[in-house]
Amino acid sequence: MNMVKWLATGVAAACLISVMTVAAQAQSDPKADAAAAKAEAAAAKAAAKARAKQVAAWKAQYGPGPYPDEMDAYLANREEKLREYYRVLYYDGEQNAVLNFERLGLLAMELGYYADAEKAFDGALDRIEAFYGKDKQAAKATSATRLEVNKDFKGEPYERAMAYYYRGLLFLRKGDYDNARAMFKSAEYQDTVSADETYQSDFALLTYLQGWASHCAGDKSQAVDSFAEAAKIDAKLKAPGPTDNLLVLSELGNGPVKATDGQYQEKLVFREGGGYTENGAIVTLGSGKSTRAWPLTPAANLYTQASTRGGRAIDGILNGKAQFKAGLETTSALATTVGSTVVQQLGGNMLYAQGAGMLLNAFSKTVRPTADIRMWDSLPASISIGTTRWGAAAAPAKGKSKGKKPSVAKAVATAAAAAWAMPSVSMTYRKDGGALGLVGIKPLTASAGRCGIAWSRSRSVQTLSPLAPGGNAKVAAQRKQDKAVWAKDEAFRATLR
Are 144 and 367 in contact (CB under 8 A)? Predict the structure, then answer.
């Protein structure tokens, strides 16, 4: 045994001596240290030079950026099925941020990447709220001497309302009924405001969903009021049963399309979306003996929401700007004419009068009222809705706690126990009562606490291009020459990284 200990001690000592020798050699060789430092500095300098050369080449090809290596680093940790949408978001910058966040959020929601969906919609809503916030006067969305498509996209009232609608559904999914109700209320508000005016709310579904969130939160009074208000707008929307705990939503078809009209293409008009035939849906819950099926109730038509204000049909948006331009041209011609006919009265001011006419005419030519037709193209044509009562777990028995307050952990456990299992959900899409061979997307289903939600779409977002329609190539090229835009977009990208 002593021999073993002696050998072990000897080996350890030898190892220690070896380590100390190597360390001493390293410390006693300053030339090696200097050479290593010099080589490292040279490598860094060469890398910086190569990087500068590469950036110069990219700048010639891509303008101010972003550049491929930056983009690759940003996309590396994104979900593969979402990467092309993230690429567009990063590349487009602040100008299209709201639109790209909305399109990304809806795709992520469809694919079940709910954290991505929540973050994307929050990004859109932060910008909408800053511009159209209810607690401040809405900023003007127009400028008489600037192309509409050159501005940061915020969307038309129905588009902004739908961004809040989807965020509300995501809150319902998690059982956060208070925040869901706040989202639906904000959605209703956004549907009533434009750049210059406010209108009476006519989006009954949003009012109904406020009632549903209140119903699930146990706020009976607010629920009753909201359901009654929704029924005033749309009599088809009947209040759910007092014990209903499952909300079903089905989105059908392709949403409204934007187009320009008018002498100067100044008018934004809306067309009904095409490429679909479905106009109804039947939901089937459960299987076997517990199967339940019924047709959903039409609750919203997005073309109607786009093409009306306060329930009244509109001819188009930006009519005021076109009239303003025509008015300027009339004033210009009048000033020149007056300058000719009253020359003797004006005396030496003849040139002044004609000059004023030319100045007004020149100003009128700078007014470029082209309408902005960037649009949220993944929205549906219509939304149908239904509610029912589905079996839920019995509430936990109330026991005495001997005067002690229940712990946070116990409260969380109790809430979890109250959650109930969702049934299987499937949709049959119809045209005028006849079934179609249309599959649609896999429904989102969730139950949290008192209520559950099932949400589906007849048309998948995945069939669309990652690039939003309605962009203007000329504007994009001009933005590449604007250093203020570069800085703004870089600040935006920094928030994404």
Answer: yes
